[in-house]
Specification:
CATH class of the largest domain: Alpha Beta
Number of strands: 21
Strand content: 15-25%
CATH superfamily of the largest domain: PAS domain
CATH topology of the largest domain: Beta-Lactamase
Number of domains: 3
Shape: flat
Number of helices: 17
Helix content: 40-55%
């Protein structure tokens, strides 16, 4: 047999070098060439499609996520804006109760009023502070004290407060004439020339003369409840950047990109920016520029919220605009938040480059691997072809080596590996499901507790309002009964037959007065005066106070206080009231004697301390337990049922917890939980 001829007719499957590889890729008819071409086509086309689709998905996801964040930022900005309005309303309502204010109206004399009104206006950073009498006529104007008194006021907000006798606040557009009456400086602050802006509608007027103000008004009453007038205050938003800068600081953390703020906020009067931190190209605030026409149509004309890609001054932003309404519900402006689109666009192009790089690297890697795989596959096939040629020529001596543990062995090993992986994945999935179910149960229980606390809080607020109204209505006639009966008692001789009856009237009236005081204490919900103190010392003070009372004569007190309890930031007097109410309640439950166990502990995981007060009394039935914190609910023959309700309210205001654990015949334990780090006072 001519082996030389055989070699010349056999295909060259294992040429080395780049020329051989190129020949195989471009036009080779061997199995190796076809495998390499098919491998490369199989990876190249999906790589291109994946790049295009991936970039599209990334663009959609990035911009969708950014827009979602902008929507959330708009809600946060609306909260900041509304909280500013609410703080203004609260300030005016509080200052309306000052003696100087209602005293001046009551006397119809402005003596001494100017200094106090100026102090209030400067302390609250107000641009306007005015006092109107009960007939709706001007009494005193802080910014223009020389204004004549007695002018009739036609302001809708003031008239509404005079009619409804309730504080009110709103955003309003104030005319230039009204601003000038208050102060010429305010009129100048509001005046601005509208700057032509790309994509905006042409302004009907070249100037903005009116001003947008945050305004609040509250009724002024005498201590006896007689209405005397209205205290009105306002803050001009034109060129006032406090709100928009607070939004940027709070929501966007003052981040910048290439020297420009990433996040911006704006307050519009109609479609003109009157307060903003959007910048012109020269770095100045874009005051007096306009919003784009599409935004104006959606928000100002149709009253909707606009979200999307917007051209703001000279840059594209992902933005959201919400309408600002006045007292009557008319849209008078817009609140805007937005983030620069440029960072997201640059990120998208970076992603494109990364995708293309990964695709190119993948193609190169697949080519190298395809060459190696093709050689491994074509080698055994070539051996089989040579063996078949020899068999055709009658040479049966050539044998094909048997693949002992090749494909089938690898397939079996892969199958077993796959089964093991599936088993592990199933086990992990089942454990995850159990963990999820446990977390759902925990969350459900937590939500149930939160719902119960919310219902209790709402119930206490409603009953507190009712209690305040009832107490105020009862207090005046009660004072008259007490005064007259006391005077009659003083005038009667000691042996007069009516003296005992009058003494009973005085005693019972004093008792009613204590009940009314309890109602008022419950309804007022006094704001905590926080300071650092030792809770153990509060407990010991209370125990020392009550130890010698008759109720504790047959009660043994067991003291188990934690020796190293950290200090807490809270109102010590209110905490003393909580402990006292709980201790007295426990002592009254042990009228026949028993043991009072008082302990304190540190709850490190929850960053709080706990004080537990347990008695050995008869316990509380289930039907009573759910109502122990309700105001006016009591099982005693005497008492108002306010002690535990007041204690519960105090703990609520301290962001703490007052919990009860009891069962019939097993005694009762109250747990007072208080955070170690107190929360700051509300504004």
């Amino acid at each position: 047999m001519d082996t030389t001829a055989q070699r010349s007719t056999a295909p060259r499957l294992f040429d080395s070098g780049w020329r051989a590889s190129l020949r195989v890729w471009l036009g080779g008819t061997t199995i190796q060439g076809r495998l390499v071409r098919n491998f490369l086509l199989a990876i190249l086309l999906p790589a291109l499609v994946t790049t295009v689709v991936g970039v599209g998905i990334i663009r959609h996801r990035v911009f969708a996520q950014a827009q979602t964040q902008v929507n959330a930022d708009l809600e946060a900005a609306k909260e900041i804006y509304q909280s500013t309005v609410d703080r203004l309303e609260d300030a005016i309502r509080i200052h309306a109760t000052r003696m100087v204010i209602y005293g001046a109206l009551s006397r119809q004399d402005t003596t001494g009023l100017a200094e106090e009104m100026d102090r209030i206006r400067q302390a609250e950073h107000l641009d306007v502070l005015t006092l109107v009498d009960a007939n709706g006529r001007l009494f005193y104007r802080s910014r223009n004290a020389e204004a004549p008194r007695g002018q009739e006021v036609t302001d809708e907000l003031i008239l509404r407060v005079l009619e409804q006798l309730q504080p009110a606040a709103a955003t309003e557009v104030v005319t230039a004439e009204a601003l000038a009456i208050e102060s010429p400086a305010l009129a100048r602050q509001a005046l601005m020339t509208i700057t032509p802006t790309a994509r905006a509608r042409r302004a009907a007027e070249p100037l903005v003369r009116a001003g947008m103000m945050l305004r609040a008004a509250a009724p002024v009453f005498t201590p006896g409840g007689r209405q005397l007038g209205v205290l009105y205050g306002g803050v001009l938003l034109n060129r006032n950047y406090l709100i928009v800068d607070k939004i940027r600081q709070t929501v966007f953390k003052e981040e910048e990109y290439q020297g420009r703020p990433v996040g911006t906020a704006t307050i519009f009067q109609d479609d003109v920016r009157i307060s903003t931190n959007v910048r012109f190209a020269d770095g100045s605030r874009a005051i007096s520029s306009q919003a784009s026409a599409e935004v104006t149509d959606e928000v100002l004309l149709r009253g909707g919220t606009w979200r999307g890609r917007a051209f703001v001054v000279d840059e594209w932003y992902l933005a959201a605009y919400a309408p600002i309404h006045n007292l009557s519900g008319k849209t008078i402006g817009m609140l805007y938040v937005g983030v620069l689109e440029r960072p997201f666009t640059n990120l998208l192009w970076q992603s494109v480059v990364v995708f293309l790089g990964i695709a190119a690297g993948g193609v190169g890697l697949v080519y190298v691997m395809a060459m190696r795989v093709a050689r491994r596959i074509s080698g055994p096939i070539h051996s089989m072809a040579v063996a078949a040629q020899r068999i055709a020529q009658g040479d049966y001596s050539k044998k094909v080596e048997s693949a002992g543990h090749d494909e089938l062995g690898y397939l079996g090993h892969s199958f077993n590996t796959m089964m093991a992986e599936l088993q592990r994945a199933h086990q992990a999935l089942r454990e995850s499901a159990e963990e999820l179910e446990r977390k759902v149960e925990q969350r459900t229980a937590e939500l149930t507790r939160m719902q119960g606390r919310m219902i209790q809080s709402e119930k206490m607020v409603a009953i507190g309002k009712l209690a305040a109204g009832v107490a105020h209505e009862i207090n005046n006639p009660l004072t008259g009964v007490l005064t007259n009966s006391s005077l009659m008692l003083e005038d009667l001789p000691d042996d007069h037959p009516w003296r005992e009856d009058l003494q009973t009237i005085v005693s019972e009236t004093l008792r009613c007065r204590r009940i009314v005081k309890g109602l008022l204490d419950f309804a007022r919900q006094t704001k905590p005066q926080r300071s650092l103190f030792d809770m153990n010392q509060v407990v010991e003070d209370v125990l020392a106070l009550v130890r010698n009372q008759t109720t504790f004569r047959n009660v043994r007190v067991v003291n188990q206080l934690h020796p190293n309890l950290p200090s807490v930031l809270a109102d010590a007097d209110q905490m003393r009231q909580v402990v006292l109410n709980v201790v007295l309640n426990a002592a009254e439950a042990m009228s026949q004697g028993g043991e009072l166990r008082v302990s304190s502990a540190l709850d490190t995981p929850h960053r709080s301390i706990e004080v537990q007060i347990a008695d050995t009394g008869p316990g509380i039935p289930d039907e009573v337990r759910s109502r122990v914190f309700e105001p006016f609910f009591t099982t005693k023959k005497t008492g108002t049922g306010l002690g535990l309700a007041v204690a519960y309210g105090i703990m609520e205001r301290h962001q703490g917890e007052l919990r009860i654990d009891t069962s019939r015949g097993q005694g009762t334990m109250f747990t007072i939980r208080l955070p170690i780090e107190g929360l700051p006072d509300d504004d």
